[in-house]
Each structure stands twice: as C-alpha cells, then as structure tokens.
Design brief:
There is one protein chain. The chain is of the alpha/beta class. It folds into two domains: 4-143 and 347-386, NAD(P)-binding Rossmann-like Domain (Rossmann fold), CATH 3.40.50.720; 147-338, Dihydrodipicolinate Reductase, domain 2, CATH 3.30.360. Helices cover 35% and strands 28% of the residues. The strands form three sheets. Strands 7, 8, 9, 10, 11, 12, 15, 16 and 18 form a nine-stranded mixed sheet that branches. A seven-stranded parallel sheet has the order 3-2-1-4-5-6-17, with helices on both faces. A hairpin with a 2-residue loop joins strand 15 (306-317) and strand 16 (320-331). Helix 3 (66-76) crosses helix 4 (90-100). The termini are far apart. The relative contact order is 0.17. The structure holds NADP nicotinamide-adenine-dinucleotide phosphate (NAP). NADP nicotinamide-adenine-dinucleotide phosphate (NAP) binds at residues 10-15, 36-38, 41, 61-64, 84-87, 89, 107-108, 142-146, 184-185, 188, 296-297, 344, 348.
C-alpha cells in the first residue's frame, strides 16, 4: 500500500473535515500540509489535529496565483493536491500541478468568477496535458458530485446491464435555528440555486426556470420533503459516462422559509454578481451578502437532523426491469461530535479524503494518467472506504420513485 504526502488548499468547512479524515487514515497520509490564504485558519485547524501519526504543517498561499502555488508545491513536494478552496481556483491549481508533476483532486468544477455557469469544459481541456505529464486529475470527489457518481458506477457494475434513468436526490433535513444560512460557501451555494434548472433527456439537456419543477419525496429516515429540480454538475459527466442513459435529473430539498428568503434577496438585488459602486468602492452584492450571513463552518454545533443523499436508478438486468436506490444517511450532530462540523461539510470532506487515498495507494492508478470524473474509476474500493470512514450506504431494490 502506498503512503504519501498531501497538500490541501483551503481551510474552510470542507477542508476541516478533510484534515480530520486524513489524520484518521494515517496509514495512507503520512503528512498533510494545510495551505490557504488566511494562515491563522490553517494554524487553528492544525492545533486541533496535532499529536497524531500524520505530520501536519501549514502554509499561506494565494491559490489564484499559479507561481505561488508552484513554489509551495516545490517546497513541500506533495504526492497529491486536494483542492477544497473554491471552484474559481481549480485551473490555477491544475496549472501548478502540471508544472510540478503532482496528482490533483477537487470537489467542484471550475466556474469563472464573473459568470455563474459551471461546466466541465475548462477542466476537460486539460486531458491531454495531464496524460502527457503522467499525472492524474480526479474531478468531483465530494458527495454530489462525487459519491453520487460512484453510486452510479457501482450500480452499473453490479446491478444493471443497462441503466436508463437516474434521479439524484439530495435531502438536508437539518435545522440550524437561523432564519437564513447556507450549508456551504454562501456565494457558491446561491449562484448554484438561483441558476436555471436543467435535466438530461434523450441525448440533450433541457433548461427550466429556477425552482420551477417541484415534487414531494418521502425519504428513508427523514420523511416527506419538497424537492426541486436543479442543474447540477455531475449530470454533465454521467450523461457521457453511463452508456445508454436516457434521463438524468437532480433534486434538492428546500424549505419554504429558505426559498422565501432567497426570493426576497434576489428581488432586492442582493444575489447579483455584477459589481456595483458603493461609496466610491466597487462591491459585488453577493460577496457582501456572504459577509453578513453566518459562516457555514459555524453551523456545526447548532445543526440538528439528518441528510439523505443518493441515487434512484432504473434499467434492466437479465432482460427484466430493475429499480435500485443507494443512499447515505448522515446525522449532523454525530458529525459534529466526531470532527466538529455539520453533515454537509462532512459528506463532502470524507469523499475528498477517500479520492486522494485512491490515488495515493495506487488503487485507481490502473487507468493511467489523465483527467477523469469519479464514475470512470472502479467503484468497489471507494464504496468499501465509505463504510469504513463514516459514510455507510444502504440500498433498496423496491424504492419509492420520483413521479
Ligand atoms: N461536491 C460536493 O458535494 C460539495 C459540497 C459542498 C461544497 N463543495 C465545494 O467544496 C469547496 C469548499 O467549500 P467550503 O464550504 O469549505 O467553503 P469555505 O468554507 O468558504 O472554504 C473555502 C476555503 O478556501 C479558501 N480560499 C478561497 N480563495 C482562496 C485563494 N484564492 N487562495 C487560497 N485559499 C482560498 C478560503 O480562505 P479564507 O478562509 O481566507 O476565505 C477558505 O478557507 C467549494 O469548492 C465547494 O463548492 C462541494
């Protein structure tokens, strides 16, 4: 089994869980360097982790600056870089990985800061360069994207001859007690949920108005919730990688309260990403809103309830129709007791650590170098690791379906 050094970029909500989990898996992660633009956050995190078998260090880095990243990578010489900063930094970090020759893992695809449009085209454009450099980029190793892609690959490998329909269901029944807060970075979250929805059907994506399609789904261990159709990045890669799939939809729960607040904020212009002049200074309304909203990393102690994220998959096996539901239920308070974070950070941070471990140990090296989405790899070692590192999954062959 390989053993190695990981450089983690970012020191926010998700990064905190990644760091705890790397230290829990010290037989794989011998060293971890926590690097972000605010050094004090890296040091505060390090202070919670010191004393274990994984050696932890910190560094200050501006991940928008490729030269700074290259210098840091040359100084630390990591075996893998785990990017849990923001999607805006994906390309600069990939450029630095190419210059130094080190594997790359992230949890969210690139989006340009001035356009709220995320797609894989920018990162897929690095395929040849990574192949030529002999290094691997694992894209989207969070929960969704991430585990949802692994679930689809696992279903394809073990339970279906052909997959025809995929519904990805993301439910958060957690209550943090604030009138309005987001569970991960508010800027990224609000850009995602105010965008048009979309779904994949018969070879093309169909756009919908934001939150225009609603259903109610009765989730295991959570109960009935309103779910809304959203555009989500893993649909783009699954549409290519799950051969023969005819329809893919992504659903997320939102409370009426959350949507009412969001509507008001949108109506008054607070979710806009177009800079405005305020007292002689340019500000982006959404970035200002982020500054006044609760920090997602602070929600841990207050959030009660569970998440349930999974995939309902329909297709055929041995000539007969088959329905299959695979999902994880995670309890906010249990996550907080274990690593001091709520379940959204937890369900993202655990798979980010596992993805990096898959590369470090060589479990996924058989594919050779290149840029890959997670469902392109063998799902089995990842599914085992989910059970081992705190995200056990459950399955059903007679699920309720989304109408
Ligand atoms: N796939 C999934 O399931 C999933 C789910 C949730 C989140 N995510 C992704 O996970 C990532 C992290 O989310 P989060 O909630 O942890 O966000 P967060 O709490 O805002 O943390 C982001 C971290 O990145 C740092 N950072 C931002 N810009 C930087 C720069 N230019 N140079 C260096 N560091 C920089 C921030 O530093 P400061 O502290 O100085 O601001 C902060 O420590 C995001 O990309 C998000 O989209 C994925």
């Amino acid at each position: 089994m390989g053993k190695g050094k990981a450089l983690m970029i970012g020191a926010g909500g998700v990064a905190s869980v990644v760091a705890f989990k790397c230290c829990q898996n010290s037989e794989v992660f011998s060293e971890l360097c926590i690097a972000s633009r605010t050094l004090s956050k890296c040091e505060a995190l390090k202070a919670k982790l010191d004393g274990g078998a994984t050696k932890v260090s910190t560094a200050r880095v501006d991940a928008d600056n490729t030269a700074e990243l290259i210098a840091l990578m040359r100084a630390f010489s990591p075996d893998v870089v785990i990017n849990v900063a923001l999607p805006y930094q994906d390309l600069t970090i990939m450029d630095a990985c190419l210059a130094v020759g080190v594997d790359y893992v992230d949890t969210a695809n690139y989006e340009p800061p001035d356009t709220a449009k995320f797609e894989y085209k920018w990162q897929w454009a690095y395929r040849e360069k990574f192949r030529a450099a002999g290094i691997t980029a694992l894209l989207g190793s969070g929960f969704d994207p991430g585990v949802t892609g692994v679930f689809c690959a696992y279903a394809q490998k073990h339970h279906f001859d052909e997959i025809h329909e995929i519904d990805i269901l993301d439910a958060n029944a957690g209550d943090h007690g604030y009138p309005f807060a987001t569970n991960f970075n508010p800027e990224i979250n609000i850009r995602e949920v105010t965008a048009n929805g979309s779904y994949f059907e018969n070879g093309r994506f169909i756009e919908t108005q934001p939150m225009a399609i609603r259903r109610v789904y009765d989730f295991p261990e959570i109960g009935p919730k309103d779910i809304y159709l959203l555009h989500h990045e893993e649909m783009e890669s699954l549409a290519l990688n799950i051969k023969g799939v005819r329809r893919i939809r992504f659903w997320m729960t939102f409370s009426e309260n959350y949507l009412n607040h969001l509507k008001v904020l949108e109506n008054v212009g607070m979710t806009s990403i177009k800079p405005i002049l305020y007292e002689g200074q340019e500000i982006v309304p959404l970035q200002f809103l982020k500054a006044v909203l609760p920090d997602p990393a602070s929600l841990g102690p207050r959030t009660r309830g569970k998440t349930n994220i999974g995939c309902i998959i329909r297709g055929v096996k041995g000539g007969a129709p088959r329905d299959y539901y695979v999902y994880n239920v995670c309890d906010h308070q249990e996550c907080y007791r274990e690593v001091g974070s709520q379940a959204i950070s937890y369900t993202t941070g655990v798979p980010a650590m596992i993805g990096a471990a898959m590369l470090l140990t060589g479990a996924w090296k058989g594919k050779g170098p290149g840029v890959f989405n997670i469902e392109e790899f063998d799902p089995d070692p990842f599914m085992d690791a989910l059970n081992r590192f705190g995200l056990p999954w459950q399955e059903s062959f007679a699920p309720r379906l989304v109408e």
